[in-house]
Amino acid sequence: MNQPNSGIEVIKKAIQTLPTSAGVYRMCNSSGDVLYVGKARNLKRRVNSYTQLDRLPLRLQRMVAQTDSLEIVTTHTEAEALLLESNLIKRFAPYFNVLLRDDKSFPYILLTNHLNRKLLLTGDSKKTNPSKNAQSPKNPAKKGENPEEWMGITKYRGTRSNRGEYFGPFASPGAVNSTLNALERAFLLRSCSDSVFTGRTRPCLKYQLKRCSAPCVGLISLEDYKKLTQQAREFLGGKSRSVQEKIANEMHKASQNLEYEAAGQARDRIRALTQIQAHQDINVENLNLPEADVIAAHQINGQTCIQVFFFRMGRNYGNRAYFPRHDKSLATSEVLTAFIGQFYADKTPPRLILVSQQLPESAVLSAALSVKENYKVQIVIPKRGTRKKVLQHAIDNARDALERRLAEKITNEELLKKAAHLFKLETPIKRIEVYDNSHVSGQYAVGAMIVAGPNGFVKGAYRKFNMKDDRNNKIDGYTAGDDLGMMNEMLTRRFSRALKEKGKNSYTDWPSLILIDGGRTQLNTANNVLKSLGIKDIKVVGIAKGPERNSGKEQFFLPEKEPFQLPQNDGLLYYFQRLRDEAHRFAISTHRAKRSKSIYKNPLDDVVGIGAKRKKALLLHFGSARAVTRAGLADLEGVSGISKSMAKNIYYYFNANS
């Protein structure tokens, strides 16, 4: 590590060539890692302030001491510098910056006239060509109408590059799913892909459940369907009262005409709309917030919780709590300023942001977001009225969430102290890694690692290990389905990489304790891997259920010791059960995702030499990929464009083990 004066010398030398324009500077250590990213209206003046050590807080003094080089990027304005600073912080995650640990996008509701299977399954943000995906209708009831004329509704997550109207963001998948379920009952819009839509010959189950009007088989006219689409658009656009009045009028008119079935359907639609409005966490009547985010921060003992509430079209779309990493000496306003810059670095800001603190750079932040989106973004602290009440509600939620987190942290710290004493560890436990794997007879095999610490589960540090199998059912030299071989492979990959990065990361991701799901054999396998890599400073413990496979009778295995059990009412036992169950959940969910993905994989993709043209020729000749895998050699040779040598390759690829 550099001495403080050597860091100052580096900075003083760099100042001689620094411009006085706006820009962003990066301070790096001797390994090239970014220590800090900052922005300035005047780069020379800002960086020069780091040479006055006695005026700097201890955090920045330590940063200067480690500085070995300085990099700058000039910008035209301070607003541009702020945007660049936020992006670089998210990219490099410097140790001395406030860090928002959030890599998830928010879900939206998408009203679109083109639904493809990939969009419905994954919310893929890549643009699609409707003319290539849309099929000509096969059902005569639609009279040749294009499926693109029948708009659909779906959940969407990703960049907003698909054509259609977006409503959101919603704070969680659960919030958007419950809203979608109610919208389907209220407006009966389709949610099927275009290919399914054009291939229907009779209504699907959603029609029977009164969640779709069955446009696929002509049970509703295009004119009436467009009315439903317009009502859905108006409702999502904030005109809920007028939409409910229209449906109520339809119900009254149908009742007067003795059309009781139609009246009952209208009644059910009104109930569905009421259900959406009843699930608002805050009464937003007369709130006058057509598009706004409410961001409130609360700080206790140097730790900060930030609550974000989303309001769109006069309705509350939910909230989410964040706990950014920062130095304890930073004021709440500084943390909140850094948070907002990073939060909107990859998200679309609304036109109005209500905040709980007076931000030191509110004007620059507002200008930066306005430049980013090409419309004016206001950052306001409400002083009175309904908006003030909404902000206070967000502040209360931030305080409650932080208090719960601190209470949980205290509990976790006590449990980790007990675990360290139980396993005779000399240093406090900062990081526990738990390993498990999942497969079905060796297929779709995955390994999983979860991480826990004083703050609970560290989901951003979870890692999955894909085990690639071949047709001989072997995985990197061992038989698929061999749990010991998979454990060996998983730990070898994890710690071989960790050893290469250990010095760079300053031991921050080095576990104090490893839990292995299994008994003596699994424990020995794990210890052998660590021994072969020269690792001696990590304690490994095996945890296995008792002979009857019942929770509460878990046995713990340590090297050269007899297995032991903890009392069934011991809080530490419950803690270890939670860790093991979380590892098992993560392994199972990863395995299922891999298996589900393989359903849509074409087996011909794995055959060397089969491109798009040959694949098309084979499918046209045999009708399906499965038929190709069962075809005889002579049949394959008879396919146009398939040579005899290629036919042999295909035949022996699928029949090598038969």
Describe the structure.
The protein is an alpha+beta fold. The chain folds into five domains: 4-92, GIY-YIG endonuclease, CATH 3.40.1440.10; 108-238, no CATH class; 291-403, Nucleotidyltransferase, domain 5; 432-593, Nucleotidyltransferase, domain 5, CATH 3.30.420.340; 603-655, Orthogonal Bundle (DNA polymerase, domain 1). Helices cover 44% and strands 17% of the residues. The chain has 22 helices and 20 strands. α7 runs antiparallel to α12 (260-278), α11 packs antiparallel against α12 (260-278) and α16 packs across α17 (520-532).
CATH uppermost class of the largest domain:
Alpha Beta
Task: Kindly report the CATH topology of the largest domain.
Answer: Nucleotidyltransferase, domain 5
Q: So, CATH architecture of the largest domain?
A: 2-Layer Sandwich
Secondary structure tally: strands: 20
Number of helices: 22
